[in-house]
Design a protein that fits this description.
The structure is a homodimer. By secondary structure, chain A is an alpha/beta fold. Chain A has 8 helices and 11 strands. The first copy, chain A, has a domain of 140 residues: Rossmann fold, CATH 3.40.50. In chain A, 45% of the residues lie in helices and 23% in strands.
């Protein structure tokens, strides 16, 4: 009996709760690990190098891009992001399921490259006003950046139909429980029973 | 926001626990209801007409078959079974998810006829000796019938690959929890978010 690992993508507009949900999932589920992206954006308070991101400069980023070291890459505003291939292959070989916290374009790229291994979830905010309130309450962005994030949120949300599952994050604990159900069900789906059945039939 | 109903098929060889699991699921989950089959087989102790089966005679069965009143039908040993269309359509319209306790041929027929609405689970016994022990402990079948059931079990088990999910029923409560996770995840999958997103974007 062999468990196949899988890749879980969670996407949402900035402020819909994706990051808090991901952190809690990673705490509770030891088989899940985060795909750590490389990024050129500045480190935020509370973020840890090598855990939240690999913080690199634009020169290193260009070098990695040139050497095709990314599984997917994206530009968000003036910052660049990429998922290092080596990091992901190492984690899969360790028997981990890998959580990707990426946008719809990254999700599409992963679906194209790793199709059957990918399960994707889109997190919706309960309302746009609630999304704006959450973005403002973070207190790290100017009004102008919040407005840009709201515009980008609308563009993201319009892509919800590309995902396997959609959740409305109204209540954090309920949303977390729903994601856990999805993970439990998908793990069952990725089980390979051929050896077990072969032994059973002997 | 609109929830789409779905059809859950649970198949297993006789004795692997399908019936006990189904009963418990139906007790715990008010949105789930059983698709009651019509059958020509004799009523067993504890079974209730119209709840476990519609017990009909061969003449009635032939009549219904002729009038195309079954969504799927099957012969098991000398007994005939069929899922009455009207019963199923009524339940779907009431907003229920419908549980089908049928074999792989019935499952295939439903997949062909109702494709995207169908989620299927195959329950495996932990071992063939355990399966035989369970069949014997029911005490309702002769050794000869038990042997026929064991032969049939092998034929059933060889079809596990046709199912969306496969579970090994070693521990009843764990298997039940896994099925509940599958139902929770699949309900999320069958949600129609288009109206919600439309309102969100206004």
């Amino acid at each position: 009996m062999k468990q196949e690992n899988f890749i879980l993508i969670i996407s949402s507009p900035s402020g819909a709760g994706k990051t808090s949900l991901s952190r809690q999932l990673l705490k509770e589920d030891s088989r899940l690990c985060l795909s750590v992206s490389a990024t050129t954006r500045k480190i935020r308070p509370g973020e840890v190098e090598g855990k939240d991101y690999y913080f690199i400069d634009i020169k290193e980023y260009k070098e990695m891009l040139l050497n095709k070291e990314f599984l997917e890459d994206a530009q968000v505003f003036d910052n660049y992001y990429g998922s290092p291939k080596k990091h992901i292959m190492d984690k899969l070989q360790e028997g981990k399921d890998i959580l990707f916290d990426i946008d719809w374009q990254g999700a599409q790229t992963l679906k194209e490259k790793l199709g059957p291994l990918v399960v994707s979830i889109f997190i919706l905010p309960p309302s746009m006003s609630e999304l704006k309130r959450r973005l403002k309450s973070r207190g790290q962005d100017s009004d102008e950046v919040v407005d840009r994030r709201m515009e980008r949120a609308k563009a993201e949300i319009s892509k919800y139909g590309l995902y396997d599952y959609v959740l409305i994050n109204k209540d954090f604990d309920k949303t977390l429980a729903r994601i856990s159900s999805i993970i439990a069900a998908e793990r069952l789906r990725f089980f390979d029973f051929s050896k077990f059945v072969e032994d059973l039939m002997k």
